[in-house]
Write a structure and sequence with these properties.
6 helices, five-stranded antiparallel sheet, alpha+beta, 191 residues
Amino acid sequence: MPVQKRKSDAEEVSSLKKSRTSHSSAKALIKTILAHPDTYPIPDDDEDIRQSMVELAQYAQELEQDAQQRGAGPAPKAMSADQVAAAVEKIRKAANSGIKKQMTWKPSCKAGTAKWCYDGVCADPNVFGTMLGLGGPPKWKMHKMPVDDFEKRIGHLGASARYSHLYLKGPHVNIRWSDSGEFKFSGTYGA
């Protein structure tokens, strides 16, 4: 079977080049105004002013479209209640499973001082706040939540090891949140 060549992108590239060069008058107007903002002569003719404003508006619109095509689009849209619930459940299950996998037998389990730590990412602060029952995005960087409340939100955390049952110990679970969407749960467990 003969090898087919990929379609050329030359037509798209040439149209982009044309649209970028078509705003040369708007670019020149911007440079002139910014070079002499106080002494720039404003045309007396309403039609000249209108033409300049239209060129500037078209140029601004093209810049916005270019930014959206590059991935720097508008802010993310708000999620529906069902989407938030699905995202909460996904993160909750991942955290529950990740914490349980860390709960293995260690000699420090006898004293209840074995440590666990779960790192995760949640891009939407509202989803993270909903998961922890905060009623909105977290307003803190670090928080201590009682173990009972944490287990109500994440689910029962327990594991079997040898002849004993391991569960969360200590008065609280440490929760860290950063604005980049990264979070960390940490605490202690034991027999």
